[in-house]
Amino acid sequence: QVNSKLGGAPCKEKHVVLLSPVGKIEISGCETGLHEIKLPKMSVLPSGAESSAACEVCEGAEEMTEPLRQCTAWLRAYFCEPATTGTLPVPAFHHPLLQRDSFTRQVLWTLLNDVKFGEAVSYKQLADLAGNSRAARAVGGAMRSNPLPIIIPCHRVIRSSGDTGHYGGGHLLKEWLLSHEKLQKEKLA
């Protein structure tokens, strides 16, 4: 339950499910912004890192708020036409973690704004970018608490050794997302 800032009344949360190349992605939000993106847990990688044509809302289309509409459009572009994501608005966020001032929020905003499609950054590099070079472990904690994966691209944060590290959606999904971005970036080059 997320409370709105004005008067603390709970938001009217809506849910949509997007059928994507990596499975069903559950998205929740209200009129104010996105609350959460839940990724599917993958036990098998989809064949190849090619984006499939199937990327559509399969549940909840009739009650989409503007932030949910923007989110599904952005995710559809991410999977099917990545070159266009830069031209789309990033939906508003309405999650308590992203409302209050904290190092976690700073890290997530830095990641969103500074680590572009097809790039990867180490936990330590992201700590540097966010203004605290000794906070690599805290960056890991921020990645674990990211309520909006893919849009806030925590899959782009890897270990200094080059190992992919952990991911809320699982190791396979993280590898798929990284290879999807690498492949798409090479196509555009």
UniProtKB/TrEMBL annotation:
One of its GO terms (cellular component) is nucleoplasm. It is found in: Nucleus. SUPFAM superfamilies: Methylated DNA-protein cysteine methyltransferase domain, Methylated DNA-protein cysteine methyltransferase, C-terminal domain. Residues 105-182 form the Methylated-DNA-[protein]-cysteine S-methyltransferase DNA binding domain. Its EC number is 2.1.1.63. Belongs to the MGMT family. Involved in the cellular defense against the biological effects of O6-methylguanine (O6-MeG) and O4-methylthymine (O4-MeT) in DNA. Repairs the methylated nucleobase in DNA by stoichiometrically transferring the methyl group to a cysteine residue in the enzyme. This is a suicide reaction: the enzyme is irreversibly inactivated. This is Methylated-DNA--protein-cysteine methyltransferase. The gene is Mgmt.
